[in-house]
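Q: Hi! First time doing this. I have a protein sequence and I read that you can turn it into a structure. Is that right? Here it is:
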Amino acid sequence: MGRSGSLEDLLSVAGGALATLAYSISVSEAPCYARHDVERMSNHTAAAEVLLERKGCAGVITLNRPRFLNALNFNMVKDIYPQLKKWEQDPEIFLIIIKGAGEKAFCAGGDIRGAVVEAVKLAPKKAHDFFRREYILNNAIGSFQKPYVALIHGITMGAGAGLSVHGQFRVATEKTVFAMPETAIGLFPDVGGGYFLPRLQGKLGYFLGLTGFRVKGRDVYTAGIATHFVDSEKLVMLEEDLLALKSPSEENIADILETYHTKSRIDQDKSYIFEHMDKINSWFSANTVEQIIENLQQDGSPFALEQLKVINKMSPTSLKIALRQLMAGSSKTLQEVLTMEYRLVRAFM
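A: Yes, that's right. Below is the predicted 3D structure, encoded as structure tokens:
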């Protein structure tokens, strides 16, 4: 949702020297429409967890951990980033498609358990490196100079948001479930959450960031999280049509997405979350967590009491930090927000 410059230097200042992420750039002389090869990563374990493929004029990223709902881990981040930068410089790559393997999830979040285990076993520095690399990847997506299409079918939470919302196009289906649940595990809505959440309409982003509320199906599009909505039964055809494009322009890609969007049953279900938007705007306009809680208590409606119950289960420290993070992020660039979030996550670890 935002475009910004290089983040490496700022994260180096924020938390120690930045390791060099070297990558090589090679361009084949074969025309892009004749190309269909798989660019495998050197780490065989990581190669099984994420697939990086050149299909025609597109670079295709498949998060390949369906048993774990495609949760993002260190190896995946470490290998996606240099390939993405390579494709950005490749004149025969015209768009990026990122998707999740299986039917259940695009990406259910980051492998937080793995990061915590690393912090305990090896040292906090290892966990810091995971978040540093992840945020650099988020920034690279936000500043990517070619069309980037995220097919957010199924569960899309936490790190999955970071891999999608900063890109140019996000395609939701009726099976999409979007959430930022970090305050429930003692963290804050990171991966650039401080940037994109405050920019959703009204106070919706504050509501989502503090409560971890799950936005489903068509509401993901209506909320502005997705740019398009496509019926899940047509998602494979959409991808095939995108891959069939020959040296496409941004307009060509947008036209295909819009065609599928307009043919989908976007108005089939009544919006659930927007029935409550006036109240959400009122409750979450407060500048303190205490006032938000008081607003919910005074309202007393079933929906308000449901959110109050959720908030009371969250980490009080996480709630307060998240609120300040979102307020500060509303006036910062994506790069500035990611730098802020890296400082925060180091303090949390």
